[in-house]
Design goal:
This protein has 7 helices and no strands. The chain has 136 residues and is mainly α.
């Protein structure tokens, strides 16, 4: 498998790795193993849905909960690899974001941008502040 401790030291290899995995590898490897093995036992091969649909559901839930872009990004990537088109992903994020509010939509769109259009500038940035912003 991989060459880093977070990948090689696990009893069941992960399909994705984030900074949290590296952190747990350093401070509590046994907790990471328990978490990983528990997740695999609870989720692996138990779904009635295909991987693409599962990932779209996760994206919708995480956008609605206003999860940070880096967490949603993992699932945008997985859904895309499972066959979801950029348009389908955008549609899900835009619709759920419309119900959940502007911050939810922006987090989802930033995740979409990071995976599918990294050439575009980040969404969550201040473009311009002017002195007349406070004038009435």
């Amino acid at each position: 498998m991989g060459s880093c401790p977070a990948e090689t030291a696990l009893e069941v290899p992960r399909r994705r790795r984030v900074g949290y995995h590296d952190f747990l590898t350093e401070v509590d490897l046994e907790a990471l193993k328990r978490r990983n093995n528990r997740w695999e036992a609870e989720h692996r091969h138990q779904s009635l849905l295909d991987r693409k649909t599962e990932e779209l559901i996760r994206i919708a839930a995480y956008v609605a909960m206003r999860n940070p872009p880096h967490h949603i990004q993992i699932h945008v990537h997985s859904a895309h690899k499972a066959g979801a088109t950029p348009e389908e992903l955008y549609y899900v994020i835009d619709n759920v974001g419309g119900w959940a509010g502007g911050a939810a939509r922006q987090n989802g769109m930033e995740a979409w941008r990071r995976v599918l259009r990294p050439d575009l500038p980040p969404i969550n940035r201040v473009v311009e502040l002017t002195d007349d912003s406070f004038e009435r």
